[in-house]
Fold this protein.
Amino acid sequence: MKLTLRLAVQTIALLLLLSTPFIASEYYVTLLNYIGLYALVALGLVLLTGIGGLTSFGQAAFVGLGAYTTAYLTTATGLPSWISWASGSAWTTLIVAWAVTSAVAFVLGSLTLRLSGHFLPLGTIAWGLSLYYLFGTSEALGGHTGLTGIPAISIAGFNFDKSNSIFYLIWLFLLSGIWTTANLLDSREGRAIRALKGGMVMASSMGVNTSRSRMVIFLLAALMACTSGWLYAHMQRFVNPTPFGLHIGIEYLFMAVIGGSGYVWGAIVGAALITILKQQLQTTLPSLIGSEGNFEVIVFGVLMIIVLQKARDGLFPALATLFNKVFPKTNSQEKSIDANAAQLAHREMPKAGDVILNATNVTRKFGGLVANNNMNLQVKAAEILALIGPNGAGKSTMFNQVSGVDTPTSGEVVFMGQSIIGKSQEAIAKLGMSRTFQHVKIMPKLSVLENAAIGAHLRGKKGVVASAWRLDRAEEASLLAEAAHQLQRVGLGDYLHAEAGSLALGQQRILEIARALCADPCLLLLDEPAAGLRLKEKQLLAELLIKLRGEGMGILLVEHDMDFVMGLVDRVVVMEFGQKIAEGLPQEIQENPAVLEAYLGGVA
Ligand code: ADP
Ligand code: MG
């Protein structure tokens, strides 16, 4: 009953939108057209900035690229033959505009996406300004006067030359953009994209190619902006550089942030709010203040500060909460686990006792400090090895050397017969190494299930296009089923749909183990897995690790909890001051005088 009401309200809203051109005056239809055009650009920013964490002030330049490409091609005379084929129809110029934008965005992205911190936004300002001046100064593009005489878009002889006809094109593009973006985010690629913000180290250790994911969202955001520009040029029938300047780029960012930069529907909320507010303020403010000027910018600035202070996530989540309260959703929104999903392929495990990880003479210096000095360490298949030592002994540093996060100053690390020195995290993950982190790295807002599923990234293949068009459902079902299976195995089966951030710290550690297992590894690296666990949880963890060992898994753990270590592991390596001071069976280590002196004496 409740669900049907909810659905009914949503359907009515959509029907109302679709019938606007028939029931509303031209003024409102035009307003909605602008909101749609802006929302399309803001949608790209939701993906790029809100979800991917990459701030761009330069989106207006991509809008301009779309607008000018089609304006130039449809109005220029005497085009050379290699391109003249494209000038006949707005639809062919759209394809050219997409190609031009992809090329430009690829080059700009390669140059700027590597920049960290505030250098990236500064970079986007730089190219935002450059493209704007290119539009304004290029004679072929009409300088500051721009280009006129752009034809209307037409399909089979029907011209979209009125605001109440192009309305349908604009909103069709926008709603398909929202649909495909939402699909994309709800997929293997989407998890990789969501992990970009705050989870890069974790994601790359799970085999996600994070530079590729960044480029993907950068290109998609640019293409959405380009499409908006293409529609704009054919709606206005003329273009000049003004709407593609940096200040408009900033307004797009306002829209995305104020609307709700992490939510696809936030793009519409933000675009509507800013567009309507701008119009109102432009008429009322100058008369209030008594002089001409773009005073609305000040109001936007203040609004932005309030939103950043009071509602980081923007207005959409608040509206959505309200809507959900009035029209509650049923649990059908939760991801269902398909018990019949095809099982993912498994790696062939190495033979028990084979050396799978071999670190020899590993030295790591930080300036004058030798954090690891000539360290040797081996892990065999079906063995649990503990690396222990007092604080500052160099355990985490050693962990980073063998996991490929850091590169030794000298020495060699071989995993599954291959040197991993200089190899990417992705390549190392492919070889079968998987890890957890001393300081838990999860995506707190995603469900426990989705967090675990990030671990299975390399076991899927479906890319951006397949995800956006829902051609990935069979594979996605297998990935989620695997994630659910691993979660049940570690004892988190009751929490599949809970927000990962709501778990207790101990459970979050266990979640990390499930995520690591989703990668189907043959070597598991655990950095202090028992920290923060209750006694019962420790026992369950120990049981799990013993079971994994029985299946042929090699396990290296760094641990402080001696009771946990001594009852569980096969061998122990003890470090002090960057060096190995002892190695042997737990029993031998407990009785080793050097170890007692260095470490256990103080702790045990
Ligand atoms: P553990 O994990 O055994 O407590 P670490 O490996 O974290 O020890 O640290 C070993 C030593 O190396 C410490 O003295 C630490 O300060 C130093 N160290 C670790 N990482 C760095 C780094 N990135 N730069 C400089 N010094 C570091
Ligand atoms: Mg440490």
About this structure: Residues 2-76+85-329 form a domain with the ABC transporter involved in vitamin B12 uptake, BtuC fold (CATH 1.10.3470). The chain has 24 helices and 14 strands. The chain has a mean pLDDT of 92.
